[in-house]
Amino acid sequence: MDASNGSQDTEQTLDSQVKAFFDSAPPLQNRNDITQKLNHFIQLNSLSSENGIGKRIVCVTSGGTTAPLEQRCVRYVDNFSSGHRGATSTEYFLKAGYAVIFLYRRGSFQPFCRSLPDDPLLECFEATEGLNIQGLWFLLHPLLMLQIISKPMKDIGPRAMFYLAAAVSDFYVPWKDMVEHKIQSGSHILDVKLVPVPKMLSVLRKDWAPLAFCISFKLETDSNILLNKARGALEKYNMHAVVANELSTRKEQVVVVTIDDKITVQRDKSKADDDVENPLIKLLSQRHSAYIEDSKRMR
Ligand code: PAZ
User: Fold this and answer.
1) What is the Å distance from ligand 1's center to 96 Cα?
2) Using CA positions, which residue lies closest to atom 16 of ligand 1?
3) Number of domains in the chain
4) Domain region containing 44
């Protein structure tokens, strides 16, 4: 029986891997509150528009995720992401007329206070008419929140966009395999088994919000493999575009990879305060509008 466990694991379907991942996450205490808040926000912004069509709504994920090593977590595997991309993009999405659901790692950069440390500004906002940003934070991993957000987003069809700029960990330690207490130091080698996080982008596209316009990101440190990896992700997860960026130049330049284009987008260096997200969001907003028009024609 033991010997077959490994092969059974590899044969798990994506659905059961997703279920196992969610089952192994600590339960979300305030799920109902979050759902209510989101429904209210999406409803408000679906009604408010000049042309009676309803605003476009984008969910921006932002910041890095952590993978805890102990149940009573003292240590975890982290990544470098500061949330600058997500926070800056949110400002430009708002400028472009979108309503934004900003899903961020607590403590990472937030819009309109990028230069301030530890700034819980978004937590002060309550949804009222005219409010076009809803902040939600995640503790460890944004995927459970993403699933919750995608439910009301599904209802607005192609007007929804997912802009997945968070650096999501590719590996985690399932809850059942985690030691309860702090791992003790010593001279032994620390042997921790991290298993792959299921690829939820396909589930988002296929099941959670199939009509939404979906943009994911690909980060590499080796520029020689970046564009091929981005193209691979575009095809594998059926994204509408993948934004390719290299670690050292990510604030200066990105490449937007679509099925028939590779568009280099750069910050305007003649302006000290310009951001690469300025032309990037303009381009994605245009592409999203064209997508909405195409979807209308196809109905
Ligand atoms: O958060 P930040 O501004 O420091 O960095 C942004 C980024 C590099 C994390 C983002 O642009 C990105 O590429 N996210 C996806 C990373 C990945 O999983 O490949």
Assistant:
1) 22
2) 167
3) 1
4) 3-297
pTM: 0.90
**Residues with C-beta less than 6 Å from any ligand 1 atom:** 81-85, 165, 167-168, 217-219, 245, 250
Counting from 1 in the atom list of ligand 1, the atom nearest the Cα of 84 is 3
**129 versus 167: which is more confidently predicted?**
167
Ligand 1 atom nearest to CA at 87: 3
DSSP code of residue 117: S
* DSSP E strands, the chain: 57-62, 67-68, 76-77, 99-105, 133-138, 160-164, 171-172, 195-196, 213-220, 241-246, 253-257, 262-266
Closest C-alpha to ligand 1, atom 13: 219
Which residues contact residue 225 at a Cβ distance below 8 angstroms, ignoring those fewer than 6 apart?
none
User: Letter for the amino acid at 55?
Assistant: K
**Ligand 1 atom closest to residue 166's alpha carbon, by position in its atom list:** 14
pLDDT band at 7 (very low <50, low <70, confident <90, very high): very low
The predicted structure's pLDDT at residue 47: 77
Which residue is it, tokens 């381009």? 283
Indicate which atom in ligand 1 lies nearest the CA of residue 62: 1
For the segment 64-111, what is each residue's pLDDT rounded down to a tens digit? 998 999 989 999 999 999 999 999 999 999 999 999 999 999 889 999
**pLDDT (tens digit, 9 = 90+) per residue, 195-231?**
999 888 999 999 999 999 999 999 999 999 999 999 9
- Output the domain CATH number for residue 79: 3.40.50.10300
**In the structure, what pLDDT confidence band is assigned to residue 276 with cuts at 50, 70 and 90?**
very high
CB distance 166 to 81 below 8 Å: yes
